[in-house]
């Protein structure tokens, strides 16, 4: 009897778990983990998904992913098939690297999304690899803890649940991750759905398929005259342009553009954008 087809609604958020074949290692070293994360970043734009959290362990991985343009199974196939080719070539292996069937759990409300992120980040702690979440390198914790936006992890949604202030949201995130809680594997892995409020998160995510405004459109909607927009795009530091830059940055962040992407349009680097955010408490 064949397996039932997965139901994968557009815009849904999933907790995805993929283990190594026969519980064997899928990551032998840091180079393997780096290669896998490069794949995740490489296919993100083309396949249209967002990553809200992840952890890479030696013999399995967890991701919190929201799909838009392509169904989850196509994304998983692209990740796993390309990584398997790399792994077998590098480690002289043959056959399957991953278990044939990944596990996907639908996430339906904010409370579970936040606690799920903590559960995922706690994996290395429960395994006895590190004592604290912040000590483990191969998870999305560092992205939230230090406000990294490099195109892999979309941190805005979860941080905005905690506070609209960047500084306060990071502080509350760190406090939440430090809480000692009894987390059950059964609750987070041996289930089909997390949460009871059907798709409430989907209404909060700004991006819909093919509808996200471009950065050029966002800049033009600030109300700045064309002459000023030209100056802004050239990286001018005139004080009269600051108000328009702040409007542009705030809206671009709401639409989950990275600091690098935001800066490229207005002639600023990531650190310059970050300093503006901190100075004016966007």
From TrEMBL:
SUPFAM superfamilies with a match to the protein in the record: Transposase IS200-like
Domain Transposase IS200-like: 9-123
A Pfam cross-reference name: Y1_Tnp
Signal peptide, first to last residue: none
Organism of origin: Defluviitalea saccharophila
UniProt xrefs under InterPro entries: Transposase_17, Transposase_17_sf
Protein name as annotated: Transposase
């Amino acid at each position: 009897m064949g397996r039932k087809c997965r139901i994968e609604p557009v815009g849904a958020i999933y907790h995805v778990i993929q283990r190594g074949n026969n519980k064997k290692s899928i990551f032998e070293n840091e180079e393997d983990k780096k290669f896998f994360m490069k794949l995740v970043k490489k296919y993100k734009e083309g396949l249209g998904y967002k990553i809200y959290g992840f952890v890479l362990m030696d013999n399995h991985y967890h991701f919190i992913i929201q799909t838009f343009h392509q169904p989850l199974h196509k994304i998983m196939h692209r990740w796993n098939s390309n990584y398997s080719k790399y792994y077998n070539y590098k480690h002289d292996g043959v056959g399957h690297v991953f278990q044939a069937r990944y596990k996907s759990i639908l996430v339906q409300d904010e409370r579970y999304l936040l606690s799920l992120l903590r559960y995922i980040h706690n994996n290395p702690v429960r395994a006895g690899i590190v004592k604290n979440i912040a000590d483990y390198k191969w998870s999305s914790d560092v992205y939230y803890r230090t406000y990294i936006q490099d195109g892999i992890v979309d941190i805005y949604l979860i941080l905005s649940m905690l506070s609209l202030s960047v500084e306060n949201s990071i502080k509350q995130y760190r406090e939440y991750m430090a809480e000692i809680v009894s987390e059950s594997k059964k609750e987070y892995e041996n289930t089909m759905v997390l949460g009871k409020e059907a798709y409430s998160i989907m209404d909060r995510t700004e991006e819909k398929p093919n509808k996200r405004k471009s950065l050029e459109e966002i800049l033009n909607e600030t109300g700045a005259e064309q002459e000023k927009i030209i100056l802004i795009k050239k990286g001018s530091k005139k004080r009269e342009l600051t108000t328009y830059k702040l409007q542009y940055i705030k809206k671009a962040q709401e639409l989950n553009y990275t600091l690098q992407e935001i800066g490229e349009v207005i002639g600023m680097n990531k650190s310059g954008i970050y300093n503006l955010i901190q100075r004016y408490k966007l």
